[in-house]
Amino acid sequence: MSKNISKLSGRKGLQENLFSKVKLPGNDIAETADQYLVGKSTIYGSKTFYDFLNKQHSDKKAWVCSGSSCLCSGDQERVTRVLENQLGDGQVGRMTCLGRCYDADSFQYDARNFSGGVSGDLNILDTSIKTSRDYEVRLVSNTAVLTDGGFHSTETFREALLELMKSSEVDVLGEITKSGLRGRGGAGFPTGTKWDSCRRIRDEKKFVVCNGDEGDPGAFSDRYLMEEQSYRVCYGMLVAAWIVGAKEGVIYVRAEYPESVTAMQQTVDELKREQLLGNNIADTGFSFEIEIVEGAGAYVCGEETALIASIEGRRPEVDVRPPFPTEEGLYKKPTVLNNVETFAAIQRILAIGGDSYAQLGSESSTGTKLLSLDAGFNRPGIVEVEMGLPLRQVIDEIAMGFKQSTKAIHIGGPLGGLVPVSKIDDLSVDFESFSEHGFLLGHASFVCIPDSFSMMRYLEHLFEFTRDESCGKCFPCRLGSTRGKEMFSQALKGEKLLDRNLLDDLLTTMQHGSLCALGGGLPLPVWNALLYFEDELSAYFENINGQPGDRL
C-alpha cells in the first residue's frame, strides 16, 4: 500500500509535495485526498500525527524545552512559571529539543528560540528583540573541515563547482571513498559506499535528501552548520547529486529550529538567483534543484525511512529495510540520504584530497567530528576535534571540566551511551572505542548528569521520551516504552518495586524486536545505568543484580 501512496504522492513532484499540503491550516482532507488520488485515511493519519499540527499544542503561546539537558538543569518549572506570569496560565507548552543545550532553560516564543535564564529579564512581548549565535565554536585540530570560515559566499561556491566539473564523477567518488568519511548522523556507514550503491542503479529519476531533523536532546551541531555553514551543506548535496545522477534534492529541517529553516532557505534562494542551483548550473550542463521542507514536530522523522514518508505526506512511520533508500527511497526512487554534517564535510575533503582527509583522526574513524557540549561544562559550545581524541582531553582541556559534581555524561542523544565519569579514561572520540566499551558515540552530543539529579528520574525520562516520540508502528517500541515508563514511575512513587528480570525481558524485546533505533536503542543507556549505578538504583528494585553486560 505504501508503495502506491508514494508513487501517487510523487506525481506532483517536490515543489507540491503532499506534506506541505497536509500542514496547511484548515486544509480540507477530502479535497486534498482527491487532488493527490489517495485515500482520506492517508491524509488524516498524517495530519493527526505531528505535535505542531495538534490543536492542544498549537493553542499555546510559548513552549519550554523538555530535552535532557534542560531537564538536568532543574529550571524547567521555573521558566514555565515565569512565562505563564507574562503570557497567562495554561499558555505554555513543551517542546523537544530547541538546540540551545549550551545554556539550558530554553523556550520558544514568536518563532524564535531563547535560553539561559533570559525569561526572567525578557519582555516576552517585545518582538523587536533579536537572537543571534550566542555559543562558542572552536577548532581543536590542525585542519578545519567544518568550522573553516572560507566557504561563505556564492563566489567560493562557484569556484568549487567549476573546479569539480574538471574531474569525472568516478574520480570524485574515489576521493570521497579514500577519505574514509563515515556518516555523521550516528550510524557511521561509509559515505562512498552508500553513494556508489545509488550511482550504480539505473533509473530516470533519483533524489538527494539532507536529514536536518536533529532531534537528539543535547545536540546542536547540525543547527550550527545549517545556520553558519549553509553553503557547505548545499555544496555537499550538489556533489552527491552530480555523482549519482540526481536532479532534485530536499533539505528536511525540523520546525523546532526556525532560525535554521530561515538560514537554509535564504542560502538556497541566493544560489538560485546566482544560477548555482536550477537548470544548467553555471553553464555546465548540470541541473539540480533543492527544496526546503520544514518538519512539524516529530522526533522519529530523524529516522531515514520515516523522514521519507513524511515528505511524501504519509504518516511518518518506519519502513522495514531492505530495500534501503539507495534502492527505493523518496517516491520509491533511488535516493542518497545523509545528515547535515556528512554533506558539510564534502567540500573540504575535495579541497584537500581524500588521502589527506584520511590522515586526520584514527585509522578506522577518519576525519573530524563536531561535539556538542552542553551547559553542564565550564566551557560549553561546538568543538571540532579529530576523531580518536581521548575523551579525557575533551572533558578536562576542551570543556574545562564540569560546573558541578557530575556522575555521568549521556553521549549521543537519548539512545546513546550513558558514560559514568569513571570510564572517561577508557574512551576516545571514535566509533570503535565507544562500541568496544558498550557505549555509542552517535551524534556526539554531551549531556552532563549531575550527582544531585536522580538516575531513576533520568531513566524514567528516557522511557517517557521514547513513548511520546514512537511512531507506533511496531509493538516492541510502542508498548515497551509505555510499560517501561509505568514501571519506573511506580518505583519512583514507591508504589511497586522494579523486577529486574521483567525489565531485562522488556529491554531485550525492545532491542531485538523494534523496527528502528528509537525502540532498539533505548535499552543501551538503561543497561549502562544498571551496570554502573547499581548502588543508587538498588533501593527501587526487588532484585537488581543481573548481567546487563551480556546484552550490550
Structure characterization notes:
The chain has helices at residues 2-9, 18-22, 29-36, 40-47, 55-58, 68-73, 76-87, 118-121, 154-164, 169-179, 191-200, 221-228, 230-244, 258-273, 304-311, 340-352, 354-358, 391-398, 431-436, 455-469, 475-492, 500-513, 517-521, 523-532, 534-537; strands at residues 62-65, 92-95, 107-109, 112-114, 137-140, 207-212, 248-253, 289-294, 335-339, 368-373, 381-386, 406-411, 417-420, 445-450. It is an alpha/beta fold and 552 residues long. The two termini are 36 Å apart. The protein has 4 domains: 56-121, Glutaredoxin; 149-358, NADH-ubiquinone oxidoreductase 51kDa subunit (Rossmann fold); 368-450, Ubiquitin-like (UB roll) (Roll); 455-551, NADH-ubiquinone oxidoreductase 51kDa subunit, iron-sulphur binding domain (de novo design (two linked rop proteins), Up-down Bundle), CATH 1.20.1440. The radius of gyration is 23 Å and the shape is globular. Helix 9 (154-164) packs parallel to helix 13, helix 10 packs antiparallel against helix 11 and helix 21 runs antiparallel to helix 22. The chain contains 25 helices and 14 strands. Mean pLDDT is 91; it is low at 125-131 and 548-552.
